[in-house]
Design brief:
single chain, alpha+beta, Immunoglobulin-like, 3 domains, 5-stranded antiparallel beta sheet, 8 helices, about 15% strand, disordered C terminus
C-alpha cells in the first residue's frame, strides 16, 4: 500500500507524462502506451515489483523520455533499491538538463542528495605495480567508475586480467557504508628448470658409466689379445709356460681382464646411480602465475572472503 509520501511522489513523477503518452513522444508503439498505462495504475497500488520491469522496457524503448526515468527511479525506491534509484535519477537529471527542464532538474538533484545518505559506496584503487589491465566486476557488472554506488546487502567482486590468476571476493555492505576496494598483484612462483643439479648429476653418472664400460671393453679386448699371444709360448694342454715371454703375456692378460671387470662394474654402478638420480628428481613445472589480490579498507564492518 502506498504511503502518502510515496503516493505524492508517484503523482509528481507521473504527472510529467501527458495523457497522450510518455513525454508526449509522437507515434509511440501501442505496446509502449499500454505498458505506460499499466505502470501508472500499478504505481498507485504500490506494486513496484511488477512495475519496474515495465518501466525499464519503456526507458529502453524511449531513451529520450525524461519522465520515464523519474518513474523508474521512484519504482526502485519503492523496491528498497536506493542505489539503482540514485543511478537513474542521475541519468534523469542529465536528460532534464539537456532538455532545459528546470523543475525536473531541481527535483532530480533533491532526490540524488536524499539518496546519498542511503546508498553504499565502494571506491576502487588499483595499485600502479599491477602489470596488466585488471578488469573489476561487481555482481557481474563491469566497474567503469572510480566509485561504485551499491545497495546494502551481499555483493560479489571479481577481478581478472590476462596473465594473472583471477580473484573473487564475497562481501556484505551495511546501509550507507563506504569502503575502499584495493586491487593489486602478488608475485608468481619461479619456474623449476628441467636441468636441475640432480638431473645434471644423473647425466654425469651416465657419462662416467659409459666411459668406464668403454675402458672395460678395451681392457677385455686387450686381455684376449694377450692371451692369444701367450699361446705360442705356453702348452695348451698343461697351461704351463716354458718361456718367460709367455709368462709375461699371461700376466698382462690377467691384469687387463681384472681391469675390464672393474671397468664394467663401475660402468654398471654409475648407470644405475644416474638412473636413480634422474627418477628421483621432480618433473619440470610451469611457474605459478602472479595472483590478483583484493583487500577491503575503510570504516565499518564488512564480511568478506577472497578466493583464488
Amino acid at each position: 500500500m502506498n504511503t502518502p509520501r510515496t503516493a505524492g511522489l508517484a503523482i509528481t513523477v507521473l504527472a510529467a507524462f501527458p495523457s497522450g503518452g510518455v513525454d508526449a513522444q509522437p507515434a509511440l508503439p501501442r505496446e509502449i502506451q499500454q505498458l505506460f498505462e499499466e505502470s501508472r495504475a500499478a504505481m498507485d497500488r504500490g506494486e513496484y515489483a511488477d512495475v519496474c520491469p515495465k518501466l525499464e522496457r519503456i526507458v529502453a524503448a524511449v531513451p529520450g523520455g525524461v519522465g520515464a526515468k523519474f518513474a523508474l527511479a521512484e519504482c526502485y525506491e519503492g523496491l528498497g533499491k536506493p542505489a539503482r534509484a540514485h543511478a537513474v535519477y542521475v541519468t534523469a537529471e542529465q536528460a532534464a538538463v539537456a532538455m532545459n527542464q528546470p523543475e525536473r532538474i531541481r527535483f532530480a538533484r533533491a532526490k540524488i542528495a536524499e539518496l546519498e545518505n542511503q546508498v553504499c559506496k565502494l571506491s576502487l584503487e588499483i595499485e600502479d605495480k599491477a602489470e596488466s589491465a585488471i578488469s573489476v566486476q561487481i555482481d557481474g557488472q563491469s566497474l567503469t567508475e572510480a566509485t561504485a554506488v551499491l545497495d546494502s546487502g551481499p555483493h560479489r567482486v571479481d577481478a581478472q586480467a590476462d596473465g594473472l590468476r583471477p580473484a573473487t571476493m564475497q562481501l556484505e555492505l551495511k546501509p550507507a557504508e563506504q569502503r575502499t576496494l584495493r586491487v593489486d598483484t602478488t608475485p608468481g612462483g619461479d619456474l623449476i628448470p628441467y636441468w636441475t643439479p640432480l638431473r645434471v648429476s644423473a647425466v654425469v653418472l651416465w657419462s662416467s658409466g659409459a666411459a668406464a664400460t668403454a675402458v672395460g671393453a678395451a681392457l677385455g679386448a686387450l686381455a684376449i689379445d694377450k692371451m692369444n699371444q701367450s699361446e705360442r709360448y705356453c702348452d695348451a694342454l698343461t697351461d704351463m709356460c716354458t718361456d718367460q715371454l709367455g709368462v709375461d703375456l699371461r700376466g698382462e692378460a690377467r691384469f687387463a681382464a681384472d681391469g675390464s671387470t672393474v671397468g664394467f662394474a663401475l660402468g654398471a654402478a654409475a648407470a644405475a646411480g644416474g638412473t636413480l638420480a634422474f627418477l628421483l628428481e621432480s618433473p619440470a613445472v610451469e611457474p605459478e602465475l602472479p595472483t590478483i589480490r583484493i583487500e577491503l579498507a575503510g570504516a565499518g564492518q564488512v564480511r568478506g572472503t577472497v578466493q583464488w
